[in-house]
Amino acid sequence: MMSGTVEDVLDIARSQLGESSGQKYFEEMGDAWWGQAWCARFGRWVFWKSGVDCHWDKDYAFDERDVPREYRVSKHDLQPAYPLCFDWDIDGRGDHFGIVESVQDWGCVTLEGNAGNPGKVRREQRVWENIICGIRPTFAQSKGQWIKKDGRWWYRHADGSYTTNGWEQIDGKWYYFDREGWMLASTVVEDKGSFYALDASGAMLTDVKTNPDHDGTYGRLML
User: What is the 3-state secondary structure (H, E, C) of 140-209?
Assistant: First the structure.
């Protein structure tokens, strides 16, 4: 079972900034070091150390033909901590391997092994033109945080995002959030034709309740 999160991948990759040799990344994974180009091995080592499956087990830059379809993502669907590949001569083949740190309008900020001259672990800025595609890793679920403001609650995910206009399961309970991301409580909500009751904490009630006269009828809630 994978145990690492997006934050684990990025923290480990950042901790290696400035490293000038790929030797440790081979030897710690049980392989001999022969002075190889080590961009992909650095990336694989980061995911290995973090306990995340990046779905890539080779020491070369991938391209769209290499990655299984279920894990392949286009360059414009990249997210932080996704591995990605670059194409310097625009021939459709992967030339270099990196990890997304952040996504910008112009491309991605990346963390890369064997980057620059001399080759080191570096933070780089890569434009869309030179990015081919990426891989969607399998992360463990990151912990979020309940935030209270003006007497109302919302739930911030570890990456800063939040659920809107729908359900989310948090610590084993289901909560409903409105279109602005606020948690609803002590009410009945309709979702896809079914009605659900929420208690005062905002959690969905799990037993059968009488449907209040909100629509002129009474009945059993679909719980």
Answer: CCCCCEEEEECCEEEEECCCCCCCCCEEEEECCEEEEECCCCCECCCEEEEECCEEEEECCCCEECCCCC
